[in-house]
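User: Thanks for the earlier help. One more: ATP synthase subunit delta. Can you show the sequence and predicted structure together?

Assistant: Of course, both are below.
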Amino acid sequence: MQGPSRVALAAGQDRLELLVSSAGTDAARLAQDLFGVTNLVASNAALRRALTESSRPAETRAALVARLLEGKVSASALDLVSGLVRAQWSDSSDLTEALEGLAVSAELSGAEKAGRLDRVEDELFRFSRTVAGDVTLRDAFAVRTPGVERKRQLVATLLSGKVAPETLSLASQAATAPRGRRVEQVLEKFLEAAAARRRQLVAEIVAASPLTEGQRSRLGTTLSRLYGRDIRLNVDIDPEVLGGLRIIVAGELIDSTVLSRLNTAKRTIAG
């Protein structure tokens, strides 16, 4: 991706992380909705152009998404896709790539929350090697071989009840919607996303007001230096903390909020 598309994807990823960190978001449902939108956009060149054409006002593009998707996908998915189409894209195909990448991220986020991320990565790798090493499976999943539902059923037969739900979902997407790629190639891309996520620590941050890009950058750098690993920031806004930040990384709480200091003062006085 180039220039504007990279900026749009980064903004979409930030929005996704905010959504999946919310207690009310079903990451698995969000992933399935985003995969559905990915497949819709990938199969319709005219729609891709309509959703990415910079000569169309951003709100017009968002309104088209609303007409197409409202009532058919979750509110979280609609919110995310609407934000994506309001952005500028260097190439219409980049929107498809971004949608798939965010769907994968949502699926992996669900696995991470459930403590299954390592398992999912291992299962995807094993399935990829199984397909690569079996000419019959390679032919069955080949792009030239018709039958999306038949491919989905084959994945289910091979994996259902044997792997994590996120593995089954990702393997099914790779097999049924490879978009001109071999299944192994799609799975390798999914594996790269899983590995990148696993190498990161997640900092759950509560702030009284949104952080600026500069503040996010400085905080991320500081935490990365402190923990010796890449840190992904999930920022939630809660005006009741009054000021400062509440940060949880790897189960450790760093609380510098005004509310925390007030509560500490109250306990001291009461003691």
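User: Great, one quick takeaway?

Assistant: The CA atoms of residues 33 and 73 lie 6 Å apart.
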